[in-house]
Amino acid sequence: MRHAVNFLVGLIFGLGLLISGMANPAKVQNFLDLAGSFDPSLIFVMASALAVTFVGYRLVLRRERPVLAERFYLPSASIIDGRLILGAAMFGVGWGLSGFCPGPAIVSLPLLANGTLIFVPAMLAGIGVARLRMQGKASRADPVAQAE
Amino acid sequence: MTVTEFTPFASSLGGALIGVAAVMLMALNGRIAGISGIVGRLLPPYAGADPVGAACIVLGLIASPLLYQAATGAPVVQTVSDQGGLMAVAGLLVGFGTAAGGGCTSGHGVCGIARLSPRSVVATVTFMATGFATVGLMRHVIGG
Fold it and tell me: Are A83 and B109 a contacting pair at CB < 8 A?
């Protein structure tokens, strides 16, 4: 049941990305191009997703636990450090260069564009390298908090 | 560059679906719908990460364009860069950056801000700023 929910969530999330236009890198890059072919559509994607999630989370997180799991897995990190800012900054550069963030890149896999088939393995490698580095640091210092 | 049409209605509808998926995942399975984190859970170490659950979400994402095309009878319109070197560098930056920064557009930008997490607000402002700067430089300074 839990895994059927997971699959369904992936499916609905992916349809959302496709219908919104966010799975088209050209549209994302035009959103990021304030001085040129600016396409403000993504403001509507973010605002709408945020509004639904904001209200929904308020209702859901009042519960003691989720319906099918023993607890809510909420990120525990609260420190704003160099790693957060540098990581987000690097992500933004890659996002601008390609027009892809992780969700749309995964959704694009079966469409088999050459750029996607290069981007996704590189993204997995980047995640792997970052995790190895963090693990090395965590074994020397305090454990790092889990990702968002 | 490819000119794209302003689509406020489709974009709002798609955004609402993303929100519905995020709320469903939290209500039923208690997890944040951050795709970079979910993809990261496919890779070791697996301590408490529920890799099978993450794989099911990823399979749903991969199935979505097939359902979309079957339902609309039209192919997904998409323009992806063919520049291999650029896409490889961008992929590495997105993967490394989201893993180090603990989230992406969905994890920080939607779920984190909805929880009013200060970390997510800072991360979202930061990746938006470098995203705008990168496209601005690429298209108007270097020329693309």
Answer: no
Burial grade of A100 (CB within 10 A; 0-12, 13-18, 19 or more): buried
**Alpha carbons within 13 A on the beta-carbon side of B93:** 25
Q: What is d(CA A101, CA B21) in angstroms, rounded to the nearest whole number?
A: 17
pTM of the entire structure? Answer: 0.94
Q: Cα Rg for chain B, rounded, in angstroms?
A: 17
> What ipTM, to 2 d.p.?
0.96
Inter-residue contact B100 to A107 (CB < 8 Å)? no
The full set of domain ranges for chain B reads 8-141
Q: Do B130 and A103 touch (CB under 8 A)?
A: no
Q: Which token pair is B126? A: 């930061």
* Interatomic CA distance for residues B111 and B113, integer angstroms: 6
In 10 A of CB A99, how many CB atoms? 31
C-beta atoms of A20 and B80 within 8 A: no
List the domain boundaries for chain A.
1-74, 79-148
Tokens representing residue A3 in the block: 């895994």
Tokens of A124: 């997995």
Could you tell me the two tokens for A48?
């709408």
Of A92, A128, A148, the CB nearest to B134: A92
C-alpha dihedral (B60, B34, B40, A72), degrees to nearest 10:
-100
Positions of E strands within chain B:
none
B93 CB neighbours in chain A (<8 A) are 90-91, 93-94, 97, 126
Q: What are B48-104's pLDDT values in tens digits?
A: 789 999 999 999 999 999 999 999 999 999 999 999 999 999 999 999 999 999 999
Q: How many other CB atoms sit within 10 Å of the CB of residue A9?
A: 27
Q: Per-residue pLDDT tens for B5-63?
A: 999 999 999 999 999 999 999 999 999 999 999 999 999 877 778 999 999 999 999 99
